[in-house]
Specification:
Elements: H1 6-15, E1 20-24, H2 27-43, E2 53-56, H3 57-72, E3 79-80, H4 83-95, H5 107-123, H6 127-130, H7 137-156, E4 158-159, H8 164-173, H9 179-185, E5 189-192, H10 200-211, E6 215-218, H11 238-255, E7 261-264, H12 268-283, E8 302-304, E9 308-309, H13 314-326, E10 331-332, H14 333-340, H15 348-365, E11 369-370, H16 372-381, H17 387-397, H18 416-429, H19 440-458, H20 468-481, E12 483-484, E13 496-499, H21 501-504, E14 511-514, H22 534-540, H23 547-562
Parallel strand pairs: 1-2, 1-5, 3-4, 5-6, 7-13, 7-14, 8-13
Antiparallel strand pairs: 9-12, 10-11
Helix pairs in contact: 1-2, 3-8, 4-5, 4-7, 8-10, 11-12, 13-14, 13-20, 16-17, 18-19, 19-20
């Protein structure tokens, strides 16, 4: 087991005091500090201890904002938009532009890029300068969108997460604020760990907190005192490298079963499948050769930090397909076929063989695309022992929303909560999530799907009504943007952690392997945001804006790796 550095020991000691809060740039580092604090309490022989106040920066800002809103007792305080609501409002702003070129835009992707630029501009306080300098066409368009977005937020009395830190700093710094109440809700000491770069927006809030009597400390890296041995190995390609990393992790784990091992993969999102395959082959080789046992799944000794989109899980994919099928539009039969054989459809266990035979028959007789009503007509002729399936389809057909339609014959718009409720009734009519007992993973995925449908309902704050197909498109977007990784019984004790670049910063390990450091990939190339003048980004010192700034940040990250583990 690794030995805590003096810096980490000091942090854990400080957290044991009352009214001390630790904030981190990301959730992964917050979880790591929590586990380290808990371990120090166990090592000290304690059986119980107060839960330390450790949380990511965004969560801390939101919590403080909510507390301050309650303290003020002002019913007119702006409501907070979540990420999905902000994206939808940006889509509406982009779609409403008067520019003649707007018809050429991919509205959804453009809105995502504009939202990213807005977040960057707020974090680095770039908007005032953009109002006073010459701008290229894209920047001028973005500035116009930004003005419209702020106007829409004022009209709806809402605030987004990118604006909230500045708004919080303004409220805390206001002379008329209830000082005693603020001191009660603020910590006496705020520790900030892992902030290699402090954005101007963060710095302003730190300064205001200091003015209000909070002792704000920016902590050095917790791994500052670790003496490590380092080696460099070359490989012909990425697959060989990851295979070697997996073999190394297994050997290291066999030598020390309680070791804390990390593998850093810079482009983890793109390589997640390859990483999972190589680690599985090396650490649990039988897992890919045999089917999971009926009694449960074997949890491997590794954890990949990056989840996958919620929409990629079979349960969610089939649920979205069922909702789409219920809207009456023709779907490719290959998708309908997969839905008919879904284990999450009611009656699948008792009619599995009959539905497989029915599917084989329908493949020979139906068109390339099939609607719900046409499939029901086919089943009248070829029911083939699928009585429960026929009943399900009849129940779904009876639930179609907006039967009367408008003058164009399209379903009438509904409120987002009404759309969400209707989609829930459709899934219930289809018998979701099936008759079989769900395992832990599917149970968690089902809970996240329900959260996604709740998020769909919350879109009413920015779009009061939408047609069911548009609501389904939004639900798909929410599922696609929600990265999810089920919790396992292995929990935080999983010995091998696979991390991205930023997730690895600030932590300690017994052994660390950093992959993917080819000369054309490290240091990272500069990627300035296209909606903000590059010169303005470089002048502000944004790391992604210039090769020099990116190089300096990557050097700092490299130095952190070199002293974050003994090997």
């Amino acid at each position: 087991m690794m030995v805590a550095s003096a810096a980490l020991a000091a942090v854990c000691s400080a957290l044991a005091a009352e009214r001390v809060t630790l904030v981190t740039p990301n959730r992964r580092l917050a979880v790591w500090y929590t586990s380290q604090f808990n371990q120090t309490q166990i090592d000290a022989g304690r059986a119980v201890w107060p839960t330390p106040d450790i949380l990511p920066w965004d969560t801390y800002v939101e919590r403080t904002w909510q507390k301050l809103s309650l303290l003020s007792g002002n019913a007119a305080s702006p409501a907070l938009l979540d990420n999905h609501q902000s994206r939808l409002l940006w889509e509406a702003v982009v779609r409403s532009t008067d520019d003649a070129a707007s018809s050429l835009l991919n509205v959804r992707e453009t809105a995502k890029q504009a939202l990213s630029a807005w977040t960057l501009a707020r974090a680095w306080h770039l908007l005032p300068a953009m109002h006073t300098m010459p701008l290229h066409d894209d920047a001028q368009m973005f500035l116009g969108w930004s003005n419209r977005f702020q106007e829409q937020c004022r009209l709806r009395n809402v605030i987004d997460r990118a604006t909230m830190p500045d708004a919080l700093a303004g409220l805390l710094g206001a002379a008329s604020t209830n000082v005693r109440g603020i001191l009660d809700l603020l910590p006496e000491r705020l520790l900030a760990a892992g902030f290699d770069i402090v954005e101007p927006q963060q710095q302003r809030l730190f300064d205001v907190l200091r003015e209000r009597g909070v002792a704000v400390d920016l902590l050095p890296a917790a791994n500052d005192a670790i003496d490590s041995r380092c080696c460099r190995i070359e490989f012909a390609n990425e697959t060989d490298e990851l295979r070697a990393a997996a073999a190394w992790a297994r050997q290291r784990l066999e030598c020390e079963p309680k070791a804390n091992i990390a593998i850093v993969v810079p482009d983890l999102k793109q390589k997640r499948g390859l990483v999972m395959r190589e680690l599985t082959d090396s650490l649990v080789p039988a897992a890919r050769a045999t089917a999971p046992s009926a009694t449960g799944k074997v949890h491997p000794p590794f954890n990949v930090s990056l989840g996958v989109p919620l929409g990629d899980y079979a349960l969610v994919r089939d649920a979205l397909a069922a909702i789409e099928f219920s809207l009456g539009r023709a779907m490719p039969y290959l998708q309908v076929s997969a839905l008919l054989r879904s284990p999450f459809l009611g009656g699948e266990e008792s009619e599995m063989a009959a539905r497989a035979r029915l599917d084989a028959v329908l493949r020979e007789s139906v068109a390339d695309e099939v609607s719900l009503s046409s499939l029901r007509a086919h089943l009248r002729e070829k029911q083939a022992g699928c009585d429960r399936l026929v009943t399900l389809l009849d129940d779904v057909i009876a639930l179609r929303p907006g039967q009367a339609g408008d003058s164009s014959g399209r379903p009438v718009p509904l409120t987002p909560p009404a759309c969400s409720q209707h989609f829930g009734r459709v899934l219930a009519a289809f018998g979701f999530p099936g008759d079989q007992a769900l395992d832990s993973t599917d149970y968690q995925v089902l809970a996240k799907l329900r959260d996604a449908m709740t998020s769909l309902s919350s879109l009413q704050a920015v779009q009061p009504r939408m047609r069911p197909p548009a609501a389904l498109a939004q639900l798909r977007s929410i599922a696609g943007e929600t990265l999810f990784q089920p919790e396992t019984t292995a929990g935080a004790g999983t010995p091998i952690q696979v991390l991205g670049i930023l997730e690895s910063a600030g932590q300690q390990f017994d052994a660390l392997w950093v992959s993917g450091l080819a000369e054309d990939k490290w240091p990272l190339t500069a990627r300035p945001n296209p909606f903000i003048p590059a010169a303005l980004q470089r002048g502000a010192g944004i790391p992604d804006a210039s090769a020099l700034a990116s190089l300096e940040l990557d050097r700092k990250i490299t130095r952190g790796w070199l002293c974050s583990a003994t090997e």
